[in-house]
Specification:
Helices cover about 45% and strands about 25% of the residues. It is α+β, with helices and mostly antiparallel strands and about 120 residues long. The chain has a 3-stranded antiparallel beta sheet, with helices on one face. The longest helix is centred in the N-terminal third of the chain and has 37 residues, at about 1-40. Helix 1 packs antiparallel against helix 2 (about 55-70).
Length: about 120
């Protein structure tokens, strides 16, 4: 009986940790999408299918939005942004890595712009 209860607790612990990790990654992805769209630079006339991003504003907004909704230690949280260029001034994808304490979360957002 003790072994069965112990196994149930282990399964519940790992399931809860997996759900927390998945929830955090989903939150990062949604924050990436919404922040990228809101920081798109529409002031320049570009060809269809190109996505130009104001990187400094994007990174600042992402940090503000993500910290508002998550219970992370803001003093130790570090962000690493990586941009996939389209060969010109545009961006095809954004990858962010968030490190808070011992936890590391990362997500990628592909910016599909209709041609």
């Amino acid at each position: 009986m003790f072994v069965g209860l112990f196994m149930i607790l282990i399964v519940a612990y790992y399931s809860l940790n997996g759900y927390t990790q998945d929830s955090s990654v989903k939150s990062i992805q949604e924050t990436l999408r919404t922040t990228a769209i809101s920081n798109r630079d529409d002031s320049v006339r570009i060809e269809k299918g190109r996505f130009i991003l104001m990187k400094d504003d994007f990174e600042k907004d992402f940090k503000e939005k993500f910290n508002k909704g998550k219970n992370l230690n803001n003093d130790t949280t570090k962000y690493d942004f990586d941009y996939l260029s389209d060969g010109k001034d545009g961006i095809k994808a954004i990858k962010v890595k968030v490190v808070s304490g011992k936890q590391t979360y990362q997500a990628t957002c592909v910016l599909n712009v209709a041609d």
